[in-house]
Design brief:
2 helices
Length: about 55
């Protein structure tokens, strides 16, 4: 489960970096980004190195 979450987090960030931060697509992806960030942090994963969005 943790592996899948890390892969999804990474993939989502790649998509987020491709779109304008003001777009509806980015805003929608950011909701999932925050959810995944919370899951990873609660699981004890240090996301400092894998977080490319840094928001």
């Amino acid at each position: 489960m943790l592996k899948i979450t890390i892969e999804e987090f990474s993939r989502l960030q790649s998509y987020m970096l491709l779109v304008d931060k003001e777009s509806d697509a980015f805003k929608t992806m950011k909701v999932r980004y925050v959810e995944l960030k919370v899951i990873l942090s609660a699981s004890g994963v240090n996301i400092t190195d894998i977080d490319r969005i840094k928001e």
